[in-house]
Specification:
The chain has a single domain, classed as Zn peptidases (Aminopeptidase, 3-Layer(aba) Sandwich), CATH 3.40.630.10. It is α/β, with parallel strands linked by helices and 305 residues long. The protein has a 9-stranded mixed beta sheet with strand order 1-2-3-5-4-6-9-7-8. The two termini are 34 Å apart. It contains 7 helices and 9 strands; from the N terminus they run E-H-E-E-E-H-E-H-H-E-E-H-E-H-E-H. Strand 4, helix 2 and strand 5 form a beta-alpha-beta unit. The structure holds zinc ion. Zinc ion binds next to loops.
Amino acid sequence: MTIRMDGRSHSRGRRALVAAVACLTAIGCHRPATQQPARQIVLPPEMEYSPPPPLPSSRATAKSVEEIIVLGTSLERRPIEAMVFGRRGEMTLIMGGFHGNESTGVELCRSLVRYLREHPEVYPDRRIAIIPEVNPDGVAHGTRANRNGVDINRNFPASNFPTRPSGRFAGGRRPASEAETRAVLTATRRLQPAKIVSIHSIAAGRHGNNYDGPAHALATIMSRHNGYPVLPTMGYETPGSFGTWAGVDQRIPTITLELPRNVSPARCWEVNREAILAAVRFVPPDGGTLRAGADSGSRATAVGK
Ligand SMILES: [Zn+2]
């Protein structure tokens, strides 16, 4: 069953009402980021397509559920979809294809979908959502950016989004200006994941388990399985990145899994399958809230991707 989450059928009045409530909630809940637990993501109304839709119904079997949820639509009218496995329990969100020229991450997500269809024993008491192609137009054209030329992994309403974007900045004129970004924001708010793995690829030698926010333990466990290094930073600035928004600002343990770009998708799946399943099974010791000494850094120093 396919569920639309862009809510085009909602009336303007209802949308305005919910937007106002969301706005008030956001103001009421505001606290400094250093104290904010990873719970109840509330977004400004302009960053969402819609008010919350009803819970997805399912074409469930006794053991497993796979829902296909449409989170949004790209400029070239491609759907941005999440596949959701499991009926109850903690949610892990896994995404690929932020950058359309990093097809290995897309392939890894597809391999994971195939694996989960055959292995419902992985999720009797947990949920997994997979968005294989965050930027489906970029994937179709093999481009890093979307069709507006915006780098989706620089377009998030993160604390380090530039107040005056310069000409060299490809993250768009304002945060969440792109449909792909809003689809991911909607997924995060809607699914309330306890942890997130965002899959990219990079030149071999620079690959690794890069983490944002309270995710050092998660990165370490993945490293035991895939042998990649644990990276608190990628070593370059990434204003407006998803990792900064989700990990540093929202306090959701967030891994940017950087695959070695010159290694085949089949080999990357072989190397990373157990790492991803370990991430799915991983329960943050403190429920994902801030832990002293295990953070990827402050707002000022968080970089990656
Ligand atoms: Zn990337």
